[in-house]
Design a protein that fits this description.
Layout (H helix, E strand, L loop, with lengths): L1 H20 L4 E12 L5 E15 L4 E13 L3 E16 L11 E15 L5 E17 L2 E14 L3 E13 L2
Antiparallel strand pairs: 1-2, 1-8, 2-3, 3-4, 4-5, 5-6, 6-7, 7-8
Length: 175
């Protein structure tokens, strides 16, 4: 009987240790300003939402983050802009929020992706992109953080140009 009780206690302790080690998925939205550098480049302001993202933890300090953004506007002709990225966040953490590397503190985010523009009365243009960003997450409440980032990206393909971006977002954590 003692062996059964001991085995049950060990199983419960093992299960609670796994539950504490479970890493949350980060769901987020970002508002942003993107400034193209070079000839005939413009500024894109996406407020209140420029992109949607999801972060999938790989370890306590790294997470894989796909991000998408789509905008459609008309001024007599319909134009669709789209962008998709895949980033790898490395959380530097902070001593102020120990053990909460993915919810608070500095991070760096190298990323790759593609973007494009579809215009009703002009040829489509598409380009690949590669870039890096750095930012900081501030916890608001237990499962909600704010996030601020500055980044730079190089586009290549139909359009070759460099852009800089500033993002401000909210992150919701699933647990």
């Amino acid at each position: 009987m003692r062996k059964v009780i001991l085995a049950a206690a060990l199983a419960i302790a093992n299960g609670s240790a796994r539950a504490q080690d479970a890493r949350p998925i980060e769901l987020g939205i970002d508002a942003g300003i993107t400034i193209g550098i070079g000839d005939d480049r413009g500024t894109d302001i996406g407020i209140p939402v420029q992109t949607f993202r999801a972060g999938f933890p790989l370890s306590s300090r790294t997470s894989l983050e796909p991000k998408i953004g789509i905008s459609i506007h008309t001024d007599g002709n319909t134009t669709s802009d789209y962008r998709a990225e895949l980033g790898l966040l490395y959380h530097l953490g902070t001593s102020r929020y120990p053990g909460a590397y993915q919810r608070a503190g500095m991070y760096v985010r190298p990323f790759i992706g593609f973007s494009g523009v579809n215009k009703e009365d002009a040829p489509d243009s598409n380009s690949g992109l590669i870039g890096i960003g750095a930012g900081y997450k501030f916890p608001i409440v237990s499962r909600l953080s704010s996030r601020f980032e500055a980044n730079i990206a190089q586009h290549f393909g139909d359009d070759d140009f460099t852009e800089i971006g500033l993002l401000a977002g909210l992150s919701f954590f699933t647990r």
